[in-house]
Amino acid sequence: MFYWLTELSDKVTFLNVFRYITFRTGGAIVTALVFVFLFGGPIIDLLRLKQGKGQPIRLDGPQSHLISKKGTPTMGGLMILSGMLVSTLLWANPTNPYVWIVLFVTLSFGVIGFYDDYLKVTKQQANTGFSGRTRLLAEATVAIIACVALTHLGRAPTATSLVFPFFKDLAFNLGYAFILLGAFVIVGAGNAVNLTD
To answer: What residues pair up with 170 in beta bridges, in sequence order?
Structure first.
């Protein structure tokens, strides 16, 4: 929304600063930080109150989790996603379709994770969330939709090319394999934190 202030920059020259992505990035970081500081505590308290015992801990995991993670409220991603969503809507260029693709993927993965945690908390069993295959299938579907949208937005052959940093002319046009590789990277990155937790 702040990006639209640039339309008034011919009258108020200071508003021209909103054109610069570096300024808007800094504003988004500060906004997300302030949002989480202001609303993080109440969100965690509300989740702790609603969930009672917290997330059930798997017995086949590390023994330290049985003690240290017991009673920890789950669905804390709501706080992170809320801060990200507010700062993105305030500071990003709303006419840029790439912003909406990233928001679609991020919020879709958030909904999948929320539903998985919701199933675990309501049934109070660690293994009663989504099955691994169902979760991966849902995430892969979201990732493939996003990659198809990316290939249609960009110009051929650049939109389906794998470009290597620091090498100006080194690029491989992957064609439709770009969609599969892109979806694999998105799903893999999205699940990397879950595997370490």
So the answer is: none
CA 44 from centroid of its chain's CA atoms: 19
- DSSP conformation class of 15: G
Domain boundaries, the chain: 1-95
| Residue 188 to residue 80: CA distance in whole angstroms | 20
Cα 154–Cα 148–Cα 151 angle in degrees, nearest 5: 15
Written as six digits, the tokens of 14 are 């200071």
Q: Which residues fall within 8 angstroms of residue 83, CB to CB, at 6 or more apart? A: 31, 32, 33, 35, 36, 39
Question: Cis (ω within 30 of 0) for the bond into 62?
Answer: no
* Per-residue tokens: 28: 């988004």
Q: What is the pTM of this model?
A: 0.80
Q: What is the pLDDT of residues 171-194, one digit of tens each?
A: 899 999 999 999 999 999 988 877
